[in-house]
């Protein structure tokens, strides 16, 4: 059974940092391309970043580029999203996904 479990969200002040984690099981992680998405209140879900099996990551060309990076630890079956210089507009529920499988999401709130 495929499971994706995000963690690491929370409340952070503008300019702060958070690292999200996504632990997964039930499939061969080492070859999986993993993705991060987010959904802000009242908005559609948007793609944030992806990382391939070799650890090559790319991030969205919108406002997160240069502030967010993704990485993975194959030994721990975990993928990460490092978020720096957070802005209030980064407030959203963040999800990891593989193919048609999604985690439950973790809330990130950026506010003073």
Secondary-structure class: mainly beta
Query: How much helix is in the residues?
Result: under 10%
Report the principal-axis shape: globular
How many DSSP helices?
A: 0
Query: What can be said about the biggest beta sheet?
Result: 7 strands, mixed
Mean pLDDT comes to 92
Question: Radius of gyration, rounded?
Answer: 13 Å
Compressed to H and E, one letter per element, the order equals EEEEEEEEEEE
Strand percentage lies at over 45%
Description:
- The strands form two sheets. Strands 2, 4, 5, 6, 9, 10 and 11 form a seven-stranded mixed sheet that branches. Strands 1-3-8-7 form a four-stranded antiparallel sheet, with no helix packed on it.
- The chain has 112 residues and is an all-beta fold.
- 29% of the residues are buried.
- It is built from no helices and eleven strands.
List keywords for this structure.
mainly beta; 112 residues; 4-stranded antiparallel β-sheet; 11 strands
Layout of helices and strands:
Elements: E1 3-7, E2 10-12, E3 18-25, E4 34-39, E5 46-51, E6 57-59, E7 68-73, E8 78-83, E9 92-98, E10 101-102, E11 106-110
Parallel strand pairs: 2-11
Antiparallel strand pairs: 1-3, 3-8, 4-5, 4-9, 5-6, 7-8, 9-10, 9-11
């Amino acid at each position: 059974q495929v499971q994706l479990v995000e963690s690491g969200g929370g409340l952070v002040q503008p300019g702060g940092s958070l690292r999200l984690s996504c632990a997964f099981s039930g499939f061969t992680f080492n070859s999986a391309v993993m993705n991060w998405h987010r959904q802000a209140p009242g908005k559609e879900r948007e793609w944030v970043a992806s990382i391939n099996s070799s650890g090559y990551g790319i991030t969205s060309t919108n406002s997160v580029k240069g502030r967010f990076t993704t990485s993975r630890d194959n030994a721990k079956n975990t993928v990460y999203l490092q978020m720096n210089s957070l802005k209030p507009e980064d407030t959203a529920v963040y999800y990891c996904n593989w193919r048609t499988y999604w985690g439950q999401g973790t809330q990130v709130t950026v506010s003073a």
